[in-house]
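Long-time lurker, finally posting.

We've been working with 1-deoxy-D-xylulose-5-phosphate synthase (Bacteroides oleiciplenus YIT 12058) and I want a structural starting point before designing mutants. I don't trust myself to interpret raw outputs, so I'm hoping someone here can both generate the structure tokens and explain anything notable. Sequence follows.
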Amino acid sequence: MKTEPTTYNLLNSIFDPEDLRKLSVEQLPEVCKELRQDIIKEVSCNPGHFAASLGTVELTVALHYVFNTPYDRIVWDVGHQAYGHKILTGRRETFSTNRKLKGIRPFPSPDESDYDTFTCGHASNSISAALGMAVAAAEKGEEDRHVVAVIGDGSMSGGLAFEGLNNASTTSNNLLIILNDNDMAIDRSVGGMKQYLFNLTTSNRYNQLRFRISKMLFKIGILNEDRRKALIRFGNSLKSMAAQQQNIFEGMNIRYFGPIDGHDVKNIARILRDIKDMKGPKILHLHTIKGKGFKPAEIAPGIWHAPGKFDPETGERFTADTHNLPPLYQDVFGETLVELAKQNPRIVGVTPAMPTGCSMNMLMQAMPDRAFDVGIAEGHAATFSGGMAKEGMQPFCNIYSSFMQRAYDNVIHDIAILKLPVVLCLDRAGLVGEDGPTHHGVFDLAYFRPVPNLTISSPMNEHELRRLMYTAQLPDKGPFVIRYPRGRGVLTDWQCPLEEIPVGKGRKLKDGKDLAIITLGPIGNVATKTIEQAEKEKNISIAHYDLRFLKPLDEEMLHEIGRSFSRIITIEDGIQKGGMGTAILEFMSDNGYTPHVERIGVPDKFIEHGTVQQLHHLCGMDEEGIMAAINK
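Top reply, 14 upvotes:
Generated this for you. Predicted structure of 1-deoxy-D-xylulose-5-phosphate synthase:
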């Protein structure tokens, strides 16, 4: 759905940042007002991320006004902050295609625009990437190129951000880091003396004088690099004493400015001009309001992070009637976790900043002392869970499948080696839809399959999910992976008795003699429908097996398949290379069976964004694709 064009006084004449830079500073507040209106209008009918981009409107305008983008590099963190950036950089006319198949991408990507300098689907990578760019610019002699990292919306809690800060503090660079603090990262700092010091240290006259003096002292040999850093530490100490507080950045010898009002665009532009040419790493700390300019989003930014369709005038969200539909897999997880926690006092829940998205909020509400949101810190979430498990607790650590990639070493080193009883629940497994390649959870089967001591499972429906969760928390099960997709299941009567599933035991769902289809996870429901259709139309007999466990494999069932069938089709909502189909091929080869095995899954490329149904069709994983494989 494309929205009707709106006439704006200024925004209609801005096709790229060069047009923006032709305006006067006095016109920037009007640009911000119109840009915010455009985001509200577009996202109200073409759903996407919302509140975060509203909070960065003034910062976005000021950055493109002051810096010579795209020659100057702006590296965005958590790309859902960047809708205003997309609109100002030549994509306003196509913004109605955002997140749609073949439309503009959900997050900034260099493949889409020169203004998008780096991939930023996951959080906390901006400082490291921007530091690399700043060092590269220096190595190439591009002394006039500025590099800016924009981090915030909670992403400062990620360990990679601190690794980048640590390296920035010891590496020669002129990086500017902008901290977008919307009360999800660092506490507010106020006070007259702090404001005085801020005004002093950001003034252009002060910094020009400071630079000339330091250059002269270097020239005559009084000042060297070690003494310069010592002077910065001394200056930071005086500032901290006067302001009666200290922050981590100054402790790392990174010049710190702020905090300032992140919605005063003229002041932000002034400050950026004053500090952009300063030598050495520096941080500008902005306080912003997530959802700024749309009252419902200001009041409840979590709900309005990605609200779906809504009325831009009243704020009423349009929600479909779902009372007769199967539940979301995440809600089955949340309800079942609370049920299990009531029975097992050792159970605790852990999630890295996704309590609502994965329904861990249900345990947080029922038993707040037994559920932990550790922030955007997936590696810590895994090791933290391992530490609790080592001391006798039973953690359920819920991490989105694509985000679990960041905790891979932690799972191996801090969970698997000691066979610690951590249940790793991978929400959003498989192709997730409109969020695109940075968020598709398609690699987990392949990357976890080689790790010793792991049990890897995927439920075909809600009953199987509940029973796998029950099984995983029983004694002596060790590290246990349960993967399941985004979206709804298939059963309206999803509440079932909690019973143990024998680990490594699959299910024969249907007998057949001509062809065997092996599935893993909810994609098996699509196969079931296709098998019914194929048998009616083609007079063919098809056996269907639900593998349930990728590790350990049900060898008894696979021997039966190897002896009985010359043709096998495997279907998985994951990458073909190294996944379930590969495991079947290895088993057949290792045991002397020679069936023809055709693997259906995600091909060896990054899959674009679109609806899950569209992407399954692209990968040949829908009914049409499976039918085509059967007919070969």
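Before you design anything, note these points.
The CA atoms of residues 8 and 34 lie 7 Å apart.
The domain at 11-299 is CATH 3.40.50.970 (Rossmann fold).
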